[in-house]
Amino acid sequence: MGLGYTGKILVVDLTTGRIRSETVPEWIYEQFLSGVGLAAWYLYRHIPTDADPLGPENVLGFAAGALTGTGSLFSGRWMVVGKSPLTGCWGEANCGGTFAPAIKQCGYDGIFFSGISPHPVYLFADNNTAELRDATDLWGLDAGATEARLCAMHPGRKRPRIACIGPAGERQSLIAGVVHDGGRLAARAGLGAVMGAKRLKAVALAGSQRIKVHDRSGVLRLSREVSATVQNQPPFVSGKVAAYLGRLIRVLPTQMETDGLLYKMILRKWGTVGMNQMSIEMGDAPVQNWRGTHHDFDLDTSSRLAPEVFTRPVVAKYFCYSCPLGCGALVEGAPGAPRGHRPEYETAMALGPLCLNADSDSIFQMNEMLNRAGMDSISAGATIAFAMECYEHGLITRADTDGLDLSWGNSAAMVALIDKMIRREGIGDLLADGSRMAARRIGAGSGRFAMHAGGQELPMHDSRFDPGFALHYAVEPAPGRHTVGSFLYYEMFQLWREIEDLPDPSRFYLKRRKYDTDLEKARMAAACSQFVNLLNAAGICLFGAFLGIRRLPVFQWLDAVSGRPRSPEVYLQIGANIQTVRQAFNFRQGIDPLVIRVSDRALGRPPQSRGANEGRSVAVEKLLKDYFRQFGWDEGTGRPTEKALGDINL
Ligand code: SF4
Question: What is the pTM of this model?
């Protein structure tokens, strides 16, 4: 058994209540590492064709990475996986906090649930036990109250680490996520609805087992070097400077290769909201349901969402397990409201400029409501923007909205609407399953206002600004994710410094070259997919990986943990193996990747007539063949070939 793994998974049948521990064959770790790789292998084998995502055949998995608990930094990410009820595709969401090490400290690399419990339950596990317990009294509680109650119920030496659902998951909202640590969400793909359908309220873990490591002092030496890089923080002047930097990026015809050190500096000072104004100015943040520009949300307006506005009420910085950076923060709420997590960039943009809302107090309030309910803030904001555009065009009226005036920027109506979506009440019930489903119910051509990829609402990174996002929104087996790749990410990962034949971007280049549809772009995208799969199999945070592969020694950490050195090429091949299983999973579920569509507006069809992305469109279809070929899949259909499947023993 390779070191760094526990070698076991916990398998729970919620219908019968049967729980068993299974040993994982060594070759699985060789081919897929752990984390998302282990989970992809398990779900591929155990979810039958055409499984109902909310039915008993779907499997919901929680997995920790190979580096988690080994002393390597940024290694506290955990994955929740299943067939997505939102897209029908491979579903995964990723979260930080302290739950990832808790899985391994109970002696497992992953925990998998099938079936449907006859009544609400939660799983409790520690060093000695794993059992389902009655959760009838927890059903109906929000996520914060659920965690508090479970901690009080388990007052042992070790506080349990908890992943749970709130009311949104219980009501099977298709945009519900899984909540951890008082408001951190594994938000995407609607996996909270799967948990709700299974009547699994929570997973509470209180183990304390240690993870064996081949060369712990080597791991720690590498970690000290990373820590020194992260702690070195030159003064970074103000949010306004970041905003003007965004404006400069917008107006220059050339672009400079991006170094993730700048991003790290912003994250360390303000967290992800440090990007708010900068992204609007440079054209990365979509405005007014993707039809607006920085003209519609100008610098004066966006200053109400400046980084300093979101930083002011900080109570304490928030660090995930083994993170030296700490991009999160616990903040005071609005007057009279409880303290909670600071909104993230995605939340601030989805509930801000996407809906033309510049009222930061309302964003704090909605963030807390969504976190407690366990609802994805990206999808919630995008669905509200969709509803506002429908309202503007008279496709829905006050008679449909329970009297709410859904004019752009009406923050009070947004707060009321979020409340209704969480409760599935009136117009909220219509919107609680996301924009694609709402468009089907409203009809009248409203689908053109639903901005999604394959059913998942698009995140707050404009694919007309970085066409690499467009490709990943379209080709990823979990469509519409922003956490996999873009040309910007490729530059920050700096993989070509370790892997010889990968494209080396020019230090300076003309911006319009990003829109070329050449083989190089497909190779860069494939490398991102492979590398991010590897990160998700290792449990590493994407923000750490933005430091670049020379500064974040993922390969060397894996070597030191396992005692089995492998080349960077072999590690990327593991990422490719995982991509093939995820793609094969979709084919087994009847998903044709060629019919997964990114909404026209996000591809610049038609192009915008002004703003940062004026005149830009993305010919994403032209890149598909070359992307598929990088994985040995059929280039016409994207289907993994017999050989590609045989190479990984599927
Ligand atoms: S950088 Fe942020 S998200 Fe990543 S591990 Fe650290 S605190 Fe968590």
Answer: 0.97
